[in-house]
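Collaborator request log, item 7. Partner lab (contact: R.S.) asked for a structural prediction of Glyoxylase-like metal-dependent hydrolase (Beta-lactamase superfamily II) to inform their binding assays.
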Amino acid sequence: MSRTTPSERPLGAVRRRQRALFRRDIAPGVHMLQHASANAYLIEDGGAITLVDALFPSSHRHLERALAAIGRSAADVRALVLTHAHFDHLGMAAGLRDAGVPIWLHPADAPIAAHPYSYRPARPRLLYPLRFPAALPILTAMVNVGALGVQGIREHSALEHGTTLDVPGAPRVLATPGHTDGHVALHLPDRDAVIVGDALVTLDPYTAKTGPRVVAAAATNDPELALASLEVLERTGANAVLPGHGDAWLEGIGGAVAAARAAGID
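Returned to partner:
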């Protein structure tokens, strides 16, 4: 069972699947910005912000509203850390780069960051809307907020497994390959939280299935490795599990990983 904090507010709501929601303190000093079924996180530390993942090109106005909701502004964003370089996590990255925000990414995902639509899935994507028509509104909403117009980036600093980043919140980098070659999670031990990106989600955009799971093979390039990477997440022992898609899971990483293993990969 998952649950979210009650401090949830819509940010410029439009159509149901395209609206943005802001959830403050989903973990201590960690805030969730959700837009078109994708999540970014704002880690607050001493008045400065680390943004984790960059949603879609049109998400910028929602980011500004989220920052204002916690009394911050774009000038307080000191780093963008990407869990991976898929288009729905890269959307605002070029704009933030142009504004002088340093970007962090695992080197193995550099080719995707440069060419956001060039990644290789384990199974053809085009078959999934036929198999899982319930996912069509999710995918359509992503298109409507700019998913097909994401600009690539080439300038970024390298993430390394096991290092603690010198950015607000001091997240510890955990290599969790499988979804992409360079996928990482970010452990925040002092906040009892782990930002898992798409290594584990509670909403699969390609099937519309909910509950902890690994993203479908339509967007995962090595399903077996993705399942193996769940062990890295499990070892954190974190209570708050913050995924790239779907609601936060606040009942502990152990239960989330067990559910994901039981669900398998579509």
